[in-house]
Design a protein that fits this description.
The chain is globular and about 50 Å long. The strands form two sheets. Strands 3, 4, 6, 7 and 8 form a five-stranded antiparallel β-sheet that branches. A three-stranded antiparallel β-sheet has the order 1-2-5, with no helix packed on it. By secondary structure, it is mainly beta. The chain contains two helices and eight strands, in the order αββαββββββ. The chain has one domain: Immunoglobulin-like.
Amino acid sequence: MRINPTKLLLLIGLGLAFVSCEQNQKFVDQPNLQWRTAKIKYLGDSADNRRVIDLTVYFTDGDGDIGREDLNGSNDTCILSDYASFLERFDLFIYYYEKVNGQFRQIPPSDSCLPFHNILPNLSPIGQNKTLEGDITTPFDYSNYPLNTTDSIKFELQLIDIAGNKSTRISSPAIGI
């Protein structure tokens, strides 16, 4: 059986068109995080102890609903009786640990109304392909830490998207200080 070259080219063209219309990558709707780096930076002179640690994580999200539309929402005030609603405004949760007596212990923020967590801007892409991936770098103000005598710290991070899907909580390696 002989195949018509015109039909063969048409079939190949249709096949290529079909493949090129597929999304390059498919991620699940639940955000995913992977640890990247932590870089300690001094603000001004290193003698004045004003430090920031830039935490960088790689993220993916299949439905692309990361961040907030309105960064000046109605939950801007911290009322301890309604603390759960206050926490709903955050989407990147950061937990800080210090190594004390050979064990890492979670250290809460000095003021519960000023948590370590962050609010991300709306990263939702416009268009048909809603998948998101990239790096998020967020500063952690390290000026008033460590609270204990320690030689290392670590962080745990979790990302929650607009739909309420949570990434697994990831941990940084021990960071020498």
